[in-house]
């Protein structure tokens, strides 16, 4: 089997190290660090690129550290447990700025990454998978289950619950079909003796463990800056970093009591309410009916009568008689469709706050939002030790 000697020069969007082969092709190497000199074996080849595995570290990078998790790198949950956190942040900054320059053709650059300083125990939710026998996370780029009894990224109460859920038999009664069955188990911060306190059946082969703020008799909730949110639908998995992101979005929106806000892809309304409390009127737009119902409940929780939520397509919502001064968009990873961009340009708010979980689609969309200029952008490290990064950008006419 032919091997190659390469020097790693950077990182790909998924956290793999990047190097060049002798023939000029780019090679992606999982578990590589910038500055490594490696012996590698190609495991997948294409005309212009290849994927490889490390067979020997000839000279380690000064950015390389010893992984502190026995499941890494087999488990696909983390991407950067083999490099320093400083190097991780540098790689994320480079990724964003490369996308802005190469894809967006934009002069603006990210100069700060907001962090909580907490790289462990920050996740308030974990989705585990079952293979009919054991529970764990998927192996990287596969559906093979890697059994685990704890995770460094999870909050303590979730790990305690996980210790009591080592097999599918622990949560699905005997006689029930387990291979394609799923049980969703939600944990509270007030777990007693590490046992889960509530559970509901769902349909597909996964276990969801989630940490909330209240006891067993109350709805699962989370608090951000004095606002309380029910989180039966989508909610950020890193509460501390979510606060940083929402504060930046609020700063960019700079709303006044005589102004209006529209939040597209509003989910359960947490960002709508957090930013919209400064506005005279705020409207959240969401296509998922259950999320809209939760968002309305969240408005009632916080006594915010000037905020409304509607079930509507992101490209077809009706602003009625009012004209929004600011639009917030927090789209899925694929970014904004041409129809949504057209709708936003037709509505023509003075300000757009774009929250993104993918630098590539963010850069593409910023370029397509003609008539608007990206004035300021920052990153938030929502998912430390993974390759994922959140951005918040302010656009003005």
Short account of what is shown:
20% of the residues lie in helices and 29% in strands.
Q: How many angstroms does the end-to-end distance come to?
A: 58 Å
> What is the overall silhouette?
globular
What is the CATH domain class of the largest domain? Alpha Beta
CATH superfamily of the largest domain: Vaccinia Virus protein VP39
What is the C-alpha radius of gyration, as a whole number of Å? 23 Å
List the secondary-structure elements in sequence, H or E: EEEEEEHEEEEHEEEEEHEHEHEEHEHEE
Would you tell me which CATH topology of the largest domain applies? Rossmann fold
Largest sheet: 8 strands, mixed
Second rung of CATH, namely the architecture of the largest domain: 3-Layer(aba) Sandwich
Low-confidence stretches: 166-204
Mean pLDDT, nearest integer? Answer: 87
Note the beta-strand portion: 25-35%
| Widest β-sheet, arrangement of strands | 7-21-22-20-19-16-17-18
Q: How many beta-strand runs?
A: 22
Protein described:
With 397 residues, the protein is an alpha/beta fold. The chain folds into 3 domains: 3-81, OB fold (Dihydrolipoamide Acetyltransferase, E2P) (Beta Barrel), CATH 2.40.50.140; 103-118 and 238-396, 3-Layer(aba) Sandwich (Rossmann fold); 125-210, no CATH class. Helix content is 20%, strand content 29%. It has 7 helices and 22 strands. It has helices at 85-102, 156-163, 239-253, 270-276, 289-301, 338-347, 359-368, and strands spanning 3-7, 10-11, 17-20, 26-29, 37-45, 49-59, 113-114, 125-130, 135-138, 145-147, 182-186, 198-202, 206-210, 221-224, 227-230, 260-264, 281-286, 307-311, 326-329, 351-356, 373-380, 390-396. It has an 8-stranded mixed sheet with strand order 7-21-22-20-19-16-17-18, sandwiched between helices. Helix 1 (85-102) packs parallel to helix 7 and helix 3 crosses helix 4 (270-276). It is globular. The N and C termini lie far apart (58 Å). The relative contact order is 0.12. Residues 166-204 have low confidence and may be disordered.
